[in-house]
Amino acid sequence: MITVRISPPQVWRAKQSLYKLAATKCNRCGNIDVYSSAFCSKCGSNEVSSINLSGNGTLIFSTKNFQQRAGYEKSMPQFVGLIKLDEGPEIVAPLTDVDEEPKEGSRVTAVLRKLTVDSSNGLIEYGLKFKVISDGP
Ligand SMILES: [Zn+2]
C-alpha cells in the first residue's frame, strides 16, 4: 500500500511545487525531475532549468489509501494513483472526485483541492490532486 504523508513544514517548504506542477529539466541529458531540484537525478548535472508541467498524464495504477493523518479523515478512504505525466516523469498523488477504482490508462489532470481546514487557526490547506478526465482504453 502506498501512503502519502505530508507534514505542514514540508508543505511550506514545497509550496512552489505543490501549488503548481513545478519541475526541473536537465540541460545536459534532458531528464525531467518533478519537484524542483538543484541536480539532475539521472546524470548529476547541476545545469537544470525550472519548467512547469502541463499537469496532464495517464494513470498507471491506483490504490485505496485508508491511512491518513489526523484532520483528513473526512476524505477517507482516498484513492492514490501512480501517474505518468505527459512530460515523462511518474509521480504518486491523491486522486479526487472518484467513487470507484479508476481504470488503468485513464487520462488525468491536476487540480487544486482543499485538503484540510485546521480548526485551531482556520487555515485551509490546499494541494494538488488528480482528476480523471476520461477513461482509459
Ligand atoms: Zn541530466
Describe this structure in words.
The chain has 137 residues and is mainly beta. It has one domain (8-134). Helices cover 8% and strands 44% of the residues. The chain is built from 2 helices and 8 strands, in the order ααββββββββ. The protein has helices at 8-13, 15-19, and strands at 22-26, 32-34, 48-52, 56-65, 78-85, 90-96, 107-117, 124-134. The strands form 2 sheets. The chain has a 5-stranded mixed beta barrel. A 3-stranded antiparallel β-sheet has the order 2-1-3. A hairpin with a 6-residue loop joins strand 7 (107-117) and strand 8. It is globular. The chain starts with 7 loop residues before the first helix and ends with a strand. The mean pLDDT is 80. Bound molecules: zinc ion (ZN). Zinc ion (ZN) is lined by residues 26, 28-29, 31, 40, 42-43, 45.
Total DSSP helices? 2
Rounded to the nearest angstrom, the distance between the terminal CA atoms is 25 Å
Q: How many domains make up the 3D coordinates?
A: 1
Radius of gyration: 16 Å
Helix content: under 10%
Structural class: mainly beta
Q: Stretches where pLDDT falls below 50 for ≥5 residues?
A: none
List the helices and strands and how they pair.
Layout: H1 8-13, H2 15-19, E1 22-26, E2 32-34, E3 48-52, E4 56-65, E5 78-85, E6 90-96, E7 107-117, E8 124-134
Parallel strand pairs: 6-8
Antiparallel strand pairs: 1-2, 1-3, 4-5, 4-7, 5-6, 7-8
The structure holds zinc ion.
